[in-house]
Amino acid sequence: MNVQPADRGRVLARIFPGDGAVASRLRAFDWTSTSVGAPEEWPEPLGTAMNALLGPLEQILVEPIDPTNHTASDLYPRSRELETILDILPVGVWQADRACEQIVGNRAGYEMFGLPFGINVSLSSQTELPTELAAIKFLVDGREVPPDQLPMQRAAFLGESVSHLPHQAILPSGDVRVIDANVVPLRDAHGELCGAVAAYHDITELKRAEAALRHTHEELEQRVLERTEQLTAANAELINENKERRQAQTGLTEIGRKLEMLLDSITDQFFAFDDQWRFTYLNRHAQEQMQVLGKDPVGLIGKVLWDEFPYVPNEAAVRRVMAERVAVTDELYYPPLGQWVENHMCPTADGGLVTFQRYVTDRKQYEEFLRLSEERLRLLVEGVTDYAVFMLDLTGHVMTWNTGAQRIKGYEAQEIIGKHFSRFYPLDAIQRGWPQHALEVTAEQGRFEDEGWRIRKDGTRFWAHVIISALYDGGGRRRGFGKVTRDLTERKLAEEALHKAQAELARVARVAALGELTASIAHEINQPLAAIVADGGACLRWLAQEVPNLQEVRDSAGRVIRSGHRAGRVIAQIRKLTTNTEPQKSEIDVNETIQELVSLIGEELRSNGVALRMDLGVGLPRVLGDQVALQQVVLNLVMNAVEAMSTMQDCARVLVIQTGREEGAALRVAVQDSGIGFGEEQMQCLFEAFYTTKIAGMGIGLSLSRSIVEAHGGRIWASNNEPSGASVQFTLPASSEAAHRDVNSDDRLP
Hints:
Beta-Lactamase; 47% helix; 25 helices
């Protein structure tokens, strides 16, 4: 195409006569010297557009224009064809000169940016932007780009090509266009930049479609993912369910096998029936029973009960289980087996029933044996008249009553059964809670034994020996108490008579001992009496003076009073030892008790040449006992020791009375002498009644001493000293221990 620059305007005017718009659009294009490269080198979609455009252009412009041979009327159709081709292109085509002062485009290009068709779009920095173009914002990669920095200018100024550069144009209306830009620089025949050409493809709808497609694709992927997860979960659940089902099936099979083994291992016969009375299962023992009855156990499965066994002894009970759906237990004797059987029949969930059957012949025989034994025992107990034998429930109420109980306590059976057994006790024992205490001890230890006063129906008292035993059933559960009471009133009265005789004997022994102390007692009394006489005479002499000495009189009178008290104490002590009174237990000081006794025997010791040494412990506990009885023990031991030393001629006669603590809460008293001691045979019989080594002795002193000590809860023993002499010692419990002894006992001191 050869169009000289000087002829450019003329040619355009000839091609587009009277059409300033087309001329303006093509005026800046250098048809003769512009090179844009080969079409196959152009980027899409510019290449497609230019290929469509060049064909007609070449036809129009390829030949040199000869003004003499072509008229305007010849060229005008071709220009109109070119304009039509440019305007129908869906791609915006723009062409700019070197300075970007003249930029023209086709109709699609103007409409793409909302610009009035045909206006010159100048992007030169030397000219002011058109108002319409200045209102458009261009964004590349999210950043706003000024209009003079767009790819068109960079191609025209710098020769940069742009291929498929997406950018956004924000129109004044707020509409956003997404444009795909393809720009190439234009060079003249010398390779110099002379402008740029661009093809802008509006891909807004494409991007929207892509976004919608992408969104749809994402949604689809999400749904597929969700569905895949659901299917995976469902598949895993199905696999797990199948696994569990197989495990359950295996477990059920194993359970069935174990259940069958269990049913076969029990000693009961087990039968199962469906809702039509057909046999469905028999365990091993049931099969053996069927064989005994002449039935084939395997062949019974599926057979109807009533067809195989027309006579069933407990038919009514069996039909009740099936009809009312309740469990029933019964016992019966089954002649074909010759056995007592116990049946536990229960309905099943499938409408049938099962029966556990066991042989109870041995139990029935044992029950009959027990019944006969109980009857014999009842007859035996009823025949006992010397003992009250009866049973109590767990709370102490009378349940049974025998003839002996009626005779001893005076109640008829109908009067006492159901009443509490505490009515047999005295009021003071009830107030102390003794009946309840007896049951508690029995419940804890299994047995309780007691002696004490009890009350008959008529209010009289009797001395009873009682044994209470706990009663248990076969399972070891306590069911009540058995109580046996024996009337020992006669024995008690005999014991009291013996006690009185022993007390009298003890008094006689004390009097006899005091008889041996006559000289000592006379001395102990004469001393204060002589002092009284002397001090009385002195008192008279002081009063007889011309000026009575009243102070001396007072002193003499005081000594008279003290001597009188001393004589009174000696006489009172003698009276205590000789008076026949009931023993009185109280807390006593052993040291004081011994010192009071020693005050009576001082002269006896001196007359026999016996030296007394007292070794009394300090801070000893008190004892609970009778002072007179304990003084009698010490007096017996002292007099025996003095007599044992009376034959000693060349040796010192020493008597030692010692008190101290014993192991535990006990107190020990020891009387030691320097006599000849005891022989081996004497040791064995020393504390027996009426045994004596004295010519004139009665043999009751040490025996009586042992009875007194043991009645106080202590013990007494004798031993020989080294190198000579003997010791007799006894222990007594401290009062704190003695106070806890059985308060219901009626122990008395001899």
